[in-house]
Design goal:
Blueprint lengths: L1 E6 L2 E10 L3 E6 L4 E5 L3 E5 L38 H14 L8 H11 L2 H4 L4 H22 L5
Antiparallel strand pairs: 1-2, 1-5, 2-3, 3-4
Helix pairs in contact: 1-4
């Protein structure tokens, strides 16, 4: 079985050597063996399924539609440096689009914020201020859309 996971703020891939309920023993592509928390596993692929070059990319992934999110990146601009205000605005927009989704809980949202803030590189200090700022900006966006009669998308 192959996995794609987050480790110390970086995304890595590897092969599962042992599977426990709360963690996996994984051999990373680099050859290093790691103990990976199950909560840090992003994708799992069953290696026993034969790869077919004509198949769609997600055909062989054992994921249900309720656990896969695709983000439309049309209109995305790349900036050399984003200020905190712009980051909070973008995160609030993303958060607002998932407000009514029961499959996404607070733990998932915190895990995303943790990766976004690169806790593995910069430490975890200050995450609560980000969390509160994003919450305020999200509530403001929801209210603004309600006043304008626009649905959240």
């Amino acid at each position: 079985m192959h996995v794609f996971f987050e480790d110390d703020g970086a995304f890595k891939a590897g092969t599962v050597l042992a599977d426990n309920d709360s963690s996996l023993q994984v051999e990373a592509v680099s050859g290093k063996r790691l103990k990976v928390k199950a909560a840090n596993v992003l994708l799992v692929r069953d290696a026993s399924v034969r790869q077919d070059a004509s198949a769609e990319p997600l055909d062989h992934w054992p994921l249900t539609p309720s656990r896969v999110w695709l983000i439309d990146l049309v209109g995305v601009h790349r900036y050399r440096r984003l200020g905190r205000r712009r980051k909070v605005q973008n995160l609030a927009r993303l958060h607002a689009s998932f407000l009514g989704d029961p499959a996404l809980n607070r733990t998932d949202k915190l895990r995303f914020l943790r990766i976004y803030l690169a806790w593995g590189l910069h430490g975890r200090a200050g995450w609560k201020s980000w969390w509160h700022e994003i919450d305020r900006a999200t509530r403001a966006k929801v209210a603004r859309n309600a006043r304008r009669g626009r649905p959240l998308a």
